[in-house]
């Protein structure tokens, strides 16, 4: 199925979870994740199922002053 991660399209298995999407892009912590603009807590990454055309945003914190 097709999903979008940080505005780039990807093809994943139908049973994919958020954790699979993070592995696909080789995400390095720390980061926050939203699926279709809804925050997904880290404790749910392995449980939260993805669906066709889901939009996933992986957001890294910005530091500075």
UniProtKB/TrEMBL annotation:
List the Pfam families: ThiS
Coiled coil ranges (UniProt) are none
SUPFAM superfamilies annotated for this entry? Answer: MoaD/ThiS
Q: Where are the transmembrane segments?
A: none
What InterPro entries does its record include?
Answer: Beta-grasp_dom_sf, Mopterin_synth/thiamin_S_b, Thi_S, ThiS/MoaD-like
- Recorded protein name is Sulfur carrier protein
């Amino acid at each position: 199925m097709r999903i979008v991660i940080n505005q780039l399209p990807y093809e994943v298995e139908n049973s994919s979870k958020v954790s699979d999407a993070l592995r696909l892009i080789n995400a390095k912590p720390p980061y926050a994740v939203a699926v279709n603009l809804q925050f997904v807590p880290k404790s749910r990454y392995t449980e939260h199922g993805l669906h066709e055309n889901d939009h996933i945003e992986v957001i890294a914190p910005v530091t500075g002053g």
